[in-house]
Amino acid sequence: MRWFGKFRERFTGLTNAIVRFPLTSLLLLAAAVINAYSISTEKDHSKFLLTFILGAFLSAVAQVGYERFFTKLSSRLVLMTVVVLLTAGYYLIIRPAPNLSMEIEVRTAVAMFGLLWAFIWVPVIKSSVCFNQSFMIAFKALFNSAFFSAIIFGGISIILAAFNELIVTINYTAYPHTANLVFVLFGPMYFLSLIPNYSEAKEESIKKAAHIPKFLEILLSYILIPLLAVFTLIIVLYIVKNINGQFWTDNLLEPMLVSYAITVILLYILVSDIDNKFTIMFQKIFPKVLIPIVLFQIVSSIISLADTGVTHTRYFVILFGVFAAIAGILFSLLPVRKNGLIAALLIIFAAISIVPPVDAFTISRNSQISTLKNVLLRNDMLENNEIKPNGSISQKDQQIITDTVFYLNRMEYIKDVNWLPRGFDAYKDFYDTFGFKEYQESGDINQSIYLNIEPSTPINISGFDRFIQIDLYKADQNGEEEISEFEKVGKTYTLLKETNGNQVTLKLMAENNKELIRFNTQEIFDKYDNYHATKETIPADEATFTKENDGAKITIVVQNVSIEKQYNQNNAGIYVFIQIK
Question: Which of 8, 417, 478, 481 lies at 20 to 30 Å from 23 by C-alpha?
Answer without folding.
Answer: 8
